[in-house]
Amino acid sequence: MADTKRDYYEVLGIQKGADENEIKKAYRSLAKKYHPDLHPGDKEAEANFKEVNEAYDILSDPDKRAKYDQYGHAAFDPASGMGGGGFGGFGDFGGFDINDIFSSFFGGSSGSTRRNGPIRGDDITVRMTLTFEEAVFGCKKEITYSKVQKCGECSGSGAAKGSSPKTCPTCNGIGQVKVQQRTPFGIMQSAKTCETCRGTGKIIENKCTGCKGTGFVRVSKKLEVNIPAGIDDGQQIALKYQGSDGMNGGSAGDLNIIITVRPDSVFERDGDDLYCEIPITFAEATLGAEIDIPTLEGTQKYTIPEGTQTGTVFTLRNKGVTRVNNPKIRGNLYLTVTVEVPKNLSRESKELLKQFADSCDDNNNSKHANFFQRLINKIKLDD
Q1: pTM score, whole prediction
Q2: Which of 73, 91, 109 represents a domain boundary (last residue)?
Q3: Are residues 333 and 256 in the same domain?
Q4: At 239, which CATH number?
Q5: Under 8 Å between Cβ of 151 and 204
Q6: Which helix (H) or strand (E) holds 2?
Q7: Structural domain range at position 293
Q8: CA–CA separation, 353 vs 131, rounded Å?
Q9: CB pairs under 8 A, 24+ apart, for 346-351?
Q10: What is the pLDDT of residue 341?
């Protein structure tokens, strides 16, 4: 039931008025926290991951979010009678269909679609998991999903080979019949779905064995998908007309692919920017050094200046992730330096370090002097 679900805002840990960036940031943090790859076999983490993805799917879509804010979980629960909005919440209006009353006044339905008119096919949503490298550089992936399509044996007619559907004699192929009803406004004339043909306007006497007369079958489809470079966790790829086939000449629905990106062991990603921690020795920090640093293109040399402090951030512009669908724009790579304190020094090394610390001029380089004094004290404590 819809009312047993947690509030989607509570799931993501955000306020109801949160903007798009807050929603995306909360989702990324929780998706990484509960990702199945980090918790193999943990059913609770798997359930939390699904709950987080469900909440993000609703709150990241403006239309779905508006419906959720108005109706709550009932907006997406078929059993609620709301159907995402409309007049379902008004009940049967004293035993009369509200659509029939609108039909009487305006000569048509209040939004219902005739069964024999064009009906667009259903959209299909699937999830695809990518490695960090696949998302950053782009790739081709094969996806398998289930869809409804026209029966190949009868070409969607529902009739067996050598036969064809006949026009319904009750509604003359319209799919609806006119009826009169007594309503609170008097006797009204309205249109009802034809019970003989169930609104299709056709009668199939000899049904196709492949689809049992429905004209449609469920099939498994394989599709090669081009993943653009720079796609990020939580983003979607929409493939037009790759969803289920429509009815009565209606267009096919879309295939929507929601992307999940596995965390990387070296880089932390935020949008198009990358972050990485670089450990260096205290000698390299003090004297400066040329070190190897990781980039998306592999390791490269980088010069650490003399006197670099722990927490110093170096920016490598245009070394981040390519903007999805715009290869001319690239983010930055931010390197945060951490100075490592050596352990298990020999007595000779400790003495040399102490001499170095004593030789530092406090007035000229107090920070270095204080740093090495703290370093010596720590080494003594480690002993």
Answers
A1: 0.60
A2: 91
A3: no
A4: 2.60.260.20
A5: no
A6: none
A7: 269-382
A8: 45
A9: 350/376, 350/379
A10: 83
Distances in Å between the alpha carbon of 221 and those of 37, 149, 242, 243? 27, 10, 10, 10
* Closest C-alpha among 51, 73, 58, 78 to residue 18: 58
> Do residue 85 and residue 17 come from a single domain?
yes
Number of domains in the chain: 3
Q: pLDDT, tens digit, for every residue of 13-50?
A: 999 888 888 998 999 889 888 887 787 888 888 888 88
**Pairing mode of beta strands 268-270, 273-281:** antiparallel
Q: Which residues, in sequence order, are CB contacts of 120 under 8 Å at separation 6+?
A: 246, 250, 251, 252, 253
Regarding whether 75 and 27 lie in a shared domain, the answer is: yes
**pLDDT tens-digit series, residues 304-359:** 999 999 999 999 999 999 999 888 999 999 999 999 888 888 888 888 878 877 77
110 belongs to a structural domain: no
Q: Which two tokens stand for residue 32?
A: 């990484």
Asked whether residue 58 falls in the same domain as residue 126, the answer is no
Residue type at 55? A
Domain contains 169: no
pLDDT tens track for 125-182: 999 999 999 999 999 999 999 999 999 999 888 999 889 999 999 998 888 888 877 7
Out of 200, 233, 265, a domain closes at 265
Cα 173 to chain centroid, rounded: 43
Residues 6+ apart with CB under 8 A from 109: 99, 102, 103, 191
Strand ranges (E), 305-368: 313-316, 322-323, 326-330, 333-340
3-state secondary structure 177-217: EEEEEEECCEEEEEEEECCCCCCCCEECCCECCCCCCCCEE
Q: CB under 8 Å to 325, separation ≥6 — which residues?
A: 228, 230
Please report the pLDDT score of residue 303 as a whole number: 96
